[in-house]
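Entry 14. Ran structure prediction on the chain below.
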Amino acid sequence: MASRSPPPATASRDGGSPEAETGRAFQYLVLAGALLVGAVLVPGQSGWSDPWLHTPLETAATVLALVVAALALVRYYSRRRAAYLFIGVGFLGAALLDGYHTVVSSPPMQAVIDQPIQDLAAWTWLASRLFLSLFLLASWWVAVEEEKKFRVRARRGLPTEGSVWTTAGVLTLVIFLFFLLVPIGPAYRPDALLSRPAELLPGLLFLGAMAGYLHRGRWGADFFEHALVVALLLGALSHLGFMALAGGPHDMAADMARLLRVASYLAVGGGLLASVHQAFRSEEEASRVILSANSALAREMAVRQREEESHRERERRLQDFLDHAHDLIQSIAPDGRILYVNETWKRTLGLQLRGSGRSLHP
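Output, structure tokens:
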């Protein structure tokens, strides 16, 4: 009996195989479980960082956010997908706010700023994270809306590029002015269950964005959206599981939240690198196909041109043969009209064709 080959795996609705989706879903569960276990064990333990080590870590996070923003904007301007614009602008604003947080929370600024440095550092950290979480949540919304508009071949109703940049610039400026001009309150509540309850807001926004991208269903086939889901998971638990429970700027929970932020930036950056590479590779393949098609078309046009020239040459030779033949050659239509006579016919009979050819005149 002939052996039967196993049936091919059924593709999911986003183009990925069920095996890939299962593997990535398992990764999400393992990562979430490990972070939740850490969230139970870590709070309350002393940290390993100090104020002087805190500044290089924050500087590294700022530079990394700038790199991620640059990659996202390159990806946007290569294909004009609005979600990448929101991601790029979000990371760019987060980089500026992270840089501001790095400066105001550095030890030399304690002698300059008249506000409690511990509270100022906590609020400026929160401002950067809140800004980024809002734009990542908006990136999911605009990705879904853009897909709907694309199906009906319409672009109206989506935010324009100028409005996104303007909103981000105004919001960043307002945050800077707020911390410069408005006295801030205490960021820590030592007697409460959550010592930093404000951290719940960006954590829930990150969680909402992650749920949106999971529901969108592209994470099984698209590596970038898979990396983005991982980054959003890291971002959500950095707030909900660690920073919300931090009792100070340098305890273990705060240190873990900062490390998870860097890990989330790296995840998005890796996904964007893969996406940019894929975009340029597809552009190269498209260019190669176009060049191949143009070359084939040029060859076909050259063949047709040679055939037309050969046809015209055959007609010229036939006409020359008929005109210089010694025989009398004529062509007559069924109704008696003379259509053609050669030069020998004209010289021999001494007649000329006039009008439509129905009559002959000496």
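The two ends are 92 Å apart (CA to CA). Will compare against last week's run tomorrow.
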